[in-house]
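User: Hello! I'm new to structural biology and keep hearing that structure can be predicted from sequence alone. Could you demonstrate with N-acetyltransferase domain-containing protein? Please show me the input and the output so I can see what each looks like.

Assistant: Of course. The first part below is the input, the amino acid sequence of N-acetyltransferase domain-containing protein. The second part is the output, the predicted structure written as tokens.
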Amino acid sequence: MAFIRQYRDSDFDNMSHIGFRLPKKNHQCRATLPPSLSASEPARRLAPYIWTHQYTHLSPSTCFVLDDGAGRAVGYCIGCPDVAALCAAYPRYVREVLEGRGRANGDVRLTRPSPPAADPSEPDAAAAAAAAAAPWIDPDTGRISELALAQLAFSAQRLLVDGHEDLLAEGYRGTMHIDLLSEHQGRGWGRRLIEVLVKSMKARSDDEEEGKGETHKGIWLGVGRENEKVVPFYEKLGFYVKERVVKTSTIIMVRDY
């Protein structure tokens, strides 16, 4: 019988999997990827390193899996209560997972692909850094750029801060991701996973507020336009679409603690 438990390091491969092994390919990919990503070999290979493994590696106490009853993770709800803290610890993730485990198994093939840091004293430093980012679509191939994907994986700033500054400033310091294999959807597991995660993150946030005097207002998540159909599901769980001055291609939803 399936049940929810905390993430264990032995779940690493199943977390990468949450899907299927492609025929004649020596890597795993996630069944829950949207079409634009699942059609890209680099995206299938790197997706877990962009949206999954940094949370389980750096904040395992706020990462939960749905165990199928035989020890196999068939879904997960993962996150961190404080994006700033995750960013501060991110070099360890780069060293131990991206340049360690990921490189060893052949998933991570580019070496520290982030562009050179701009001189912060220059007035156009931010614009220069943005211009140095690889385009999402490789102009030579017309496909999602592996360099752009790797730049996200190697940079917590690009992945979690850029474009989300307003959320962090308002106190939405936590973020999360959830994925379930299709055969385990529609059974209430998604709701239960989210409630377990939010309870855990709120407890961690309360402790940090008391110790550091910081305000933790709640949690945010991003919903791709291709997956807009899940918005009502999150709304039933207390999330709501955040109206923002910043306009992005991703729907941002928040839930207050």
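User: So the tokens describe the shape?

Assistant: Right, they're a compact way of writing down the 3D structure. Reading them back into a model, for example: The chain has one domain: 3-113+136-216.
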